[in-house]
Amino acid sequence: MAAVSTVFAVCLFGGVNSQSPVQVKSLVDNLLSNYDKRIRPVEDQTLPVILDVSFSLISIIGVDEVNEKLETSGYLTIQWTDSLLRWDPASNNGISTIFLPQNDIWKPDIVLGNGFKKFEEFGGSFYNVEVESFGNVFWKPFQVFETQCSIDTTYYPYDREVCEIVFVVWSYTVIEVEIFKSANGINLNEYTESGVWEITRTDVKVSKESVESKVTFSIHIKRKPFYYIFNIMIPILFLGMLTIFVFALPVDAGEKMSYAMTVFLSFAVFLTIINTLLPVSSETTPVLSIYLLMQMTMSILVLFITALQIRLHHRDTSVPISKPFRFMVRLMHYFHCRKSCKTSKTISPAENKDSEYRDNFDSMGETSQEEKNKPEWKDVTSAIDFLAFWSFFLLYLCLTVYLFATIIRGS
């Protein structure tokens, strides 16, 4: 009964097309019998072979800022029409598509135009190309691409980069082989998100420079800054605050100089770490590096002031105090008294010497009472601590605001 049904179906629908290996082999042999892959596959040799080149990005493996290199993985989709590989599917048991080794037919010699490595053939002997009955050929060579990428780290770690991947037809001129379009541009359907870089947009441009035909795929990326904020920027901000708190330690504590030296060495270590992450270039300097350099300069000044304080603190009391140091002491007492006397409506003659220094500050002269309460060298070091703390604190705030304002405006 089943056999009768099969015969009836064959008679009704006109038969069944079978595609056995022998039939496919026969078709391939017929197509390649007089085929010469050294000849461009166009019937009119005065016309160019038209290419459609698209790029499917799989992943951004890494961006080497030091060597200015972008490393990506992906594959090209190169399409052209081979007029020598056409057949009628109706006369070949309905075979409409075949697959051939890439080295068995003509293919364009496209190379990576801005690569780091030497020119090498895309794909390999184990790659196949897809050929349709109308002569349309699809070639999809996969590769890890290492391309040059100019890195601008001015606003690191909030920098945005534009990296290009350029493919050039090497041997043929535009008269012979022309990249006419890139229908799909950069395809991100199979893209795996990077942990460091985020793609903002992509562009593609087909151009003819000199006699070469090339296509340029541009990838606009921006750095994800959270890792660098928590591991570099926040520690630097804390170290800057620690530098200022050197002046909160009394000279008698004995740890003032070693504390300042430790903070300075910490800045030196961070500067070394950042320099290993940035490109060796004199064209662009990261704002963060300038900020760190300014912080190190502040640390050097702190070391100098601390060394001077220790020497003044242990100076003999018989050594007279010069006018600049007296002025600093009067200035300290002026600010201290200004703060403590805000709630006082009257000032009695029996108040402490802070009030007296405040009264004498406006006249800038020395009175008999000031001579009676003559400052000592420990008062000088205390005044240096007070004035230096607030001066460096204001400088620290200005530098930090400038850093973030510049980075945010530039990014």
Architecture overview:
The strands form 2 sheets. Strands 1, 2, 3, 5, 6, 7, 9 and 10 form an 8-stranded mixed β-sheet that branches. A hairpin with a 2-residue loop joins strand 11 and strand 12 (212-223). The protein has helices at 2-13, 21-32, 226-244, 256-277, 287-313, 323-340, 353-363, 368-372, 377-410, and strands at 49-64, 69-81, 97-101, 110-112, 128-132, 136-139, 142-148, 160-169, 177-181, 186-187, 197-209, 212-223. The radius of gyration is 39 Å and the shape is rod-shaped. The chain starts with a helix and ends with a helix. The longest helix has 34 residues, at 377-410. Helix 3 packs antiparallel against helix 9. It is of the alpha+beta class.
Which residue ranges are poorly predicted, with pLDDT under 50 across at least 5 consecutive positions?
A: 1-16, 343-351, 361-370
Assembly form of the protein: single chain
Q: Per the principal axes of the C-alpha atoms, what is the gross shape? A: rod-shaped
Number of strands: 12
User: How many H/I helical runs?
Assistant: 9
Rg, Cα atoms, Å: 39 Å
Summing up helix and strand content along with how strands pair, one would put the structural category as: alpha+beta
Kindly estimate the percentage of residues that lie in beta strands according to DSSP: 15-25%
Largest sheet: 8 strands, mixed
Fraction in helix = 25-40%
